């Protein structure tokens, strides 16, 4: 715990550090949308958005820009650990979240494109494809009331994309892609316009409840006070809630330099969603692969892993871009939050004054709008 800062001004103490009705910790896609929903519902309340970084340092600005709710093999995998109703409910929340993002902020402002999303199978995954194909009717029926489509998933050849060793694919018509930077910037603009107070560059080290609210101590030595505290710190929540069922998961991404002519366009998944790739303009982006190094990637370290980098480069070279020269322009990592087996987000009262909205399972883009409403309702009922 840092030493309390004593050399602060009257103005800082009177107006900036105290008197908050709500403080949300975590300026990512989840935390910022919670702040927006609360401010729109309680316009006269003083709301602060606290984060250790100028913008999110977890996954919100480091994701691949997929507007997705689940491929068939991902849903099939989920059904091994969760009930059919839970899998359907989670897919519905993700789908509804994408729809809300589009309606609330506008496709143009978030760079949304209704590309659909392909699930790709190689010859060594022929049994996986056959199993998924045999279950198309079941999952189309499961999601019919979610997407409004009788055939959310359809079987198609993928030969037109030029991938090596691939011919079978399943198309999810209801998914798409967006621009992560545009999405975050649009949400941040709304946060600013609503008068939500930025408390960036501060790291919460502890908090303590009392009769008047919650006192927050930061590592930088500042002390803040609020009526209600909301934790939207996702993978980093165990620092504050050690017993929470949260496992960090590092997701790594590579993006190529621009091609004179982009080899393929679209949004794609493989291996139950663990590998994902798409075009970004005239570039190709690829991410994931952590299923091959699962324990090593259960980390809070933002540094890139050489073994994952090599795996993704080889996947590009051998499968996606056979015979096509490419150069990697950038690579980065983001930290997601998983449960040991539970994929459902953790949205709950920790106490009368403290709430948590964490464990997005790598789906924070789609879940944000829906979970923000759930938190707002929790707070209203407390």
Number of strands: 18
Strand content: 25-35%
Structural class: alpha/beta
Q: For the CA atoms, what is the radius of gyration?
A: 22 Å
Percent helix, as a range, is 25-40%
- Tally of structural domains: 2
Q: Say what the CATH topology of the largest domain is.
A: D-Amino Acid Oxidase, Chain A, domain 2
Name given to the CATH architecture of the largest domain? 2-Layer Sandwich
Count of helical stretches: 10
- Gross geometry: globular
Distance between the termini: 30 Å
Q: Could you spell the SSE succession in H and E letters?
A: HEHEEHHHEHHEEEHEEEEEEEEHEEEH
- Mean model confidence by pLDDT: 94
- CATH 4th-level superfamily of the largest domain: D-Amino Acid Oxidase, subunit A, domain 2
Q: Would you identify the regions where 5 or more consecutive residues have pLDDT less than 50?
A: none
Q: In this structure, how is the largest beta sheet organized? A: 8 strands, mixed
Q: Give the C-level CATH assignment of the largest domain.
A: Alpha Beta
Task: Explain how this protein is built.
The protein has ten helices and 18 strands. It has helices at residues 10-16, 29-41, 72-78, 84-105, 107-110, 126-134, 136-147, 180-193, 306-320, 364-381; strands at 20-25, 47-51, 66-67, 117-122, 153-157, 166-172, 176-177, 197-200, 204-210, 213-218, 223-231, 247-256, 267-270, 275-280, 283-288, 328-338, 346-349, 354-358. α2 packs parallel to α8, α2 (29-41) runs parallel beside α10 (364-381) and α4 packs across α7 (136-147). It is globular, with a radius of gyration of 22 Å. 42% of the residues are buried.
